[in-house]
Specification:
This protein has about 300 residues and is α/β, with parallel strands linked by helices. It has 2 domains: about 110 residues, NAD(P)-binding Rossmann-like Domain (Rossmann fold); about 170 residues, 3-Layer(aba) Sandwich (Rossmann fold). Helices cover about 35% and strands about 15% of the residues. It contains 12 helices and 11 strands.
């Protein structure tokens, strides 16, 4: 099968390719638009890239494409899955490759928000030193876990020695259970994928039901939370704070901050990071191995890590 790596992955991936006997077409720059992606994949049967979203137009123009390996966990962020099913393209992802990295940043965000690091950073930028600021510890607190996949379980593992009372929500949880856990928890970790059932799962009404000491940490997908309601609650100090690594509308890499991100960044009780939770040297190496194995398995006609959403 013809395999096309339509944009660079990383140096670890390149090393794996050099050490193997594969003959793949590998590009050293990302495609600048959909037209260029289609040109690169015109004859491909197996492909990988992530800069340009795969939709019906791409699949229509690439009739030979059978397997698509996405170097990420949430493949539906990069692929129109309905279109992939329509055109018979099998999509693969890299489940769990960055779970530990995401979990560590999530807990780190929670700690920093709990200890009022965002507000102290704001004061320091003004040239003010307030060393008497107090926050709270995570140990012994009630924790709500929205999502029980690889990341959710890794967060629970990190918190296991802190005597926290963890209540887990997953796809089987009832509306009543979601309401209760969100209202009762002081620290809420959002680490579930974005689906029709999780969009705005943390709604205006549920945010209003939270304790005024509640912290929300979102390392899942931005649109799981009603962004406007969250901003209002934070701006009015209705809840204690938030650590946000994801947003409903994220700027393109290297571009200016969007207004949505900027409004949260300017709050003194929110800590904002640019969707970097999964980025660690270790997770990058793991991604390299998984995407290589996914491509090789597809080339051999026995795809692994098949994604369904």
């Amino acid at each position: 099968m013809k395999v096309v790596v339509a944009e660079p992955i990383n140096e670890a991936f390149n090393s794996l390719v050099k050490e193997s006997d594969v003959s793949w077409d590998i590009y050293d720059e990302p495609p600048k638009d959909k037209e260029e992606l289609i040109k690169r994949l015109k004859d491909a049967e197996v492909a990988t890239s992530f800069s340009v979203k795969y939709d019906a137009e791409v699949f229509e123009a690439c009739p030979n494409l059978k397997f698509l390996a996405i170097p990420a966990v949430g493949a539906n962020f990069f692929v129109d899955m309905n279109a992939a099913h329509t055109y018979g393209v099998t999509v693969m992802n890299c489940p769990g490759y960055n779970a530990q990295a995401v979990a560590e940043l999530a807990v780190g965000l929670a700690i920093m928000v709990a200890r009022k690091v965002p507000s102290q950073q704001h004061e320091l930028r003004k040239g003010l030193w307030h060393g008497d600021s107090h926050g709270f510890q995570l140990a012994g607190k009630k924790v709500g876990m929205v999502g029980n996949g690889n990341v959710g379980q890794a967060i629970q593992s990190l918190l296991s020695g802190w005597s926290t009372d963890i209540n887990v929500l997953d796809s089987k949880s009832t509306h009543e259970e979601v309401d209760t856990v969100l209202a009762d928890s002081q620290v809420i970790f959002v680490c579930c994928p974005l689906t029709d059932s999780t969009k705005n799962l943390i709604s205006k009404e549920r945010i209003e039901s939270m304790q005024d000491s509640a912290i929300i940490v979102n390392v899942g997908r931005g649109a799981v939370i009603d962004q406007e309601a969250l901003y209002t609650a934070l701006a009015n100090k209705r809840i204690y704070g938030a650590g946000l690594d994801v947003f409903a509308k994220e700027p393109a890499y290297g571009s200016d901050l969007s207004e949505e991100v900027k409004q949260f960044y300017n709050l003194d009780n929110a800590l904002v990071t640019p969707h970097i939770a999964g980025n660690s040297f270790e997770s990058s190496d793991q991604l390299s191995r998984m995407i290589f194995d996914n491509l090789k398995s597809a080339e051999d006609g026995q795809p692994i890590n098949v994604y369904s959403a």
